[in-house]
Amino acid sequence: MDGRYENYSDSEKKGYVVMTNNVVSSTVTALLDRAKAKYVDTAKNDILLALSGFPDLTPDVEHFVYPDRTYTLAFRLKGTIPVLYKGNTYNIPVALYLWDTHPYYAPICYVCPTPNMMLKESKTVLFFLVRLTVKPSKPSFSGTMHAELASIRQTHADLRAGQQKLKVIVDDLAQEQKRMEDALIVYQEKKAEITSLLSTSSSEKIVEIDQVIDACTPLHRQLLRCYVYDCAIDDAIYFLGQALSRGRISLTNYLKEVRQLSRRQFIYRATLQKCRIKAKMSV
After folding, report:
1. Boundaries of each SB domain copy (predicted)?
2. How far, CA to CA in Å, does 124 sit from each of 17, 90, 121, 219?
3. pTM here?
4. Which of 66, 64, 2, 60 is nearest to 31 (CA)?
């Protein structure tokens, strides 16, 4: 830390360092936002790590110009980094550009020589070996072409098979749509019929419930009437027996009522049997 802070206590020095780190962190975040970085947190961590190792670097944004003269606003670290060479340390000026896709795209680093710096070609430069001394033969593409053709044929066959499957699905959907349309027509007709019946029945007078159920012929009507009376007399005799057992009526009254009901039941049963014979029903 600078000598001017030597008289400060350790806590004051730590507070100054924390405050400085916060300022640098907020500055880096703002610059990354200006450069429209996609992964701000990861890029900020890498930048802060670089600044802690090389404090002479300064963060900023700058228009980076591509070879085709297009440009983009990129995050830049510019300053000097110490380089050890033959036992001596040299501060080399550099500029690093980070892209908006950092860390998935590597940054670009340039050396920025000052006007008073001298550039000297190294003895180990082997640029002349890059020149072609023998013209290479043309590569053979026959194997690659055959493989590509086979892949294209297979893809074409898969597409044709998929086309046939899609055609079957479309035909099934068309048939299902036709069935649904037919069912819809039937439903609409039935709905109209029910609506008409409801409107007609609502205008008619109220019918007694006992008159709703009726036999189709006078013979069957008499048969139904005798059967109903027979069942009713059975119920009456049963409840008379219950009343006798509970002391509600006397034995004399019970026998009198049962005798009268039995006579009527006999007549109804005889009439019922004759009606069944007349209607050619099982007796």
Report:
1. 217-283
2. 45, 21, 9, 130
3. 0.39
4. 60
